[in-house]
Design goal:
Elements (H helix, E strand, L loop, with lengths): L2 H50 L1 H5 L3 H14 L3 E7 L5 E4 L21 E8 L2 E9 L7 E7 L1 H51 L14 H66 L5 H26 L5 E4 L1 H11 L1 H6 L2 E7 L5 E4 H17 L5 E10 L2 E7 L28 H11 L3 E7 L2 E9 L3
Parallel strand pairs: 7-9
Antiparallel strand pairs: 1-2, 1-5, 3-4, 4-5, 6-8, 9-10, 10-12, 11-12
């Protein structure tokens, strides 16, 4: 859920809650106030009526009492009923149309020395406030007036409707305002979020323009500084990595130099023999010239492969065919393989091209192959495999050497860690970094029967 949507829902919840609380509080206050006013009004009416019918009660003048009651019922619309008790404490007259309730005389039990009594009755017609007044102090005659709370209920109902209408109106207006305001507030946050996603993708050096004088503006400036620092750090790391790559490449070329010398010596020997023959017999046949040209082309091709590998030190991402790189690497180490009588087993499958730096991939595979060859000084089997699975290309280099001891398995990818007297300790570290730069992985399995390294690189980076 978007942040601005959460803010809108929060505002709606706050407004609704406040409306409910205000409605409840107002209802209680207004209800209490109106009931108090209704009670005072009923007491006043009851006292005035008791004064008016005092003499007729003493004279048992039913008609005078009834006339007075009818006058009050016509004038006061909030009165539900009136009944009067006589000198003997029994009902003298009443306004109930269908007879009075049987327990009516128990509605108000006056305490000693009380001249009035109030009781709230819950009837079928709603709440009625029964107000009783003694006509004569300490005597039986009483006047009882039942005040309806309809006016209170109607007022509360109108007030509730007004509060609901106002709450809905405020919610609608507040939602529109909070929607606009929240979008205005969260817009810089979304820009900042997109900017941080760019940083996570390695887009360093970019700047975000948020010029608000608040915490978001301060955070944006902090991220701008971080972007510049990361760009500077990456530049330094790339330069450092280039130097490490050149160092390891020179080391690899040194390890290949014996094979290079041997491969060049063979065609040179053929040329030397032919020219020594030419010295004694200055005539060359077409076959002799073909041998010379073939030997020269052989040396030129060999030197071209080595120079291309030696000079490739720039980061250039392009479509790289892994199997072609594998064959190139195996050509570079063919002398060492022949010299140590190593049997090569290929398990290559057709792979799609990957987006990668060819020179880096070639460097990584060369390091792995050279390590495998050097682990088998007395010969063995070198297994080279490739496959594609789940959007990744996998290249495995396996040997039948002595394996990697358990106590150094956690250290073999550490820079400058080596078990060789003349090693730089950068070979496998370089492979690890190359895999990381391509969003890939390098892993291995090793036991007493050999080691297999697997380079995993995404087909699309």
């Amino acid at each position: 859920m978007k942040l601005w949507v959460k803010i809108v829902f929060l505002n709606i919840f706050i407004v609704s809650s406040l409306g409910m609380l205000i409605g409840i509080a107002t209802k209680d206050i207004v209800t209490a106030s109106m009931r108090e006013e209704l009670t005072r009004e009923g007491e006043s009416i009851a006292k005035n009526l008791s004064d008016r019918i005092a003499d007729p009660i003493l004279l048992d003048d039913f008609y005078k009492v009834q006339e007075a009651i009818n006058d009050v019922m016509e004038k006061e619309k909030d009165i539900e009923y009136i009944f009067v008790t006589g000198k003997n404490g029994q009902i003298f007259t009443h306004t109930f149309k269908n007879g009075y309730p049987s327990d009516m005389l128990q509605w108000n039990n006056f305490k000693i020395n009380e001249t009035s009594s109030i009781q709230l009755l819950d009837t079928e017609k709603g709440f009625i406030r029964d107000i009783g007044v003694r006509i004569f102090g300490g005597m039986n005659p009483e006047v009882h007036i039942g005040m309806k709370e309809n006016r209170i209920m109607q007022t509360i109902s109108r007030m509730r409707n007004i509060i609901i209408a106002l709450t809905i109106t405020v919610i609608l207006i507040g939602s529109a305002l909070s929607c606009s305001l929240s979008r205005f507030i969260t817009k810089p946050l979304y820009k900042l979020m997109d900017f941080t996603h760019g940083l996570s993708r390695g887009e360093f050096g970019k700047q975000i323009e948020i010029k608000t004088a608040d915490e978001v503006g301060d955070l944006a400036q902090t991220f701008n500084n971080l972007s510049l620092q990361l760009q500077e750090y990456r530049t330094k790391m790339e330069e450092s990595y280039k130097q490490m790559l050149k160092t390891e490449k020179l080391t690899a070329l040194g390890r290949l130099s014996a094979g290079l010398a041997h491969e060049i010596r063979n065609p040179l020997t053929s040329i030397k023999v032919l020219f020594q023959t030419f010295k004694d017999n200055p005539s060359l046949t077409k076959e002799d010239m073909k041998i010379v040209l073939s030997a020269a082309e052989q040396m030129d091709d060999l030197l071209t492969r080595f120079l291309r590998f030696a000079r490739g030190d720039e980061f250039n991402v392009s479509d790289v065919y892994i199997n072609a790189v594998i064959k190139q690497v195996m050509n570079l180490v063919q002398f060492q393989i022949k010299k140590q009588s190593i049997n090569v087993i290929y398990n290559l499958t057709k792979l799609p091209p990957i987006k990668a730096d060819r020179v880096m991939i070639e460097q990584a595979l060369l390091n792995l192959v050279l390590n495998a060859v050097e682990s088998m000084p007395d010969g063995g089997e070198l297994t080279v495999s490739s496959k594609a699975q789940n959007g990744y290309a996998f290249v495995s280099i396996g040997d039948t050497g002595a394996g990697i001891p358990e106590d150094i398995k956690d250290k073999i990818f550490d820079p400058f860690f080596t078990t060789k007297g003349d090693g730089t300790g950068l070979g496998l570290s370089i492979v690890y970094n190359i895999a990381s730069l391509h969003n890939g992985e390098i892993s291995f399995k090793s036991n007493g029967k050999g080691t297999t390294f697997t380079l995993k690189v995404p087909v699309s980076v």
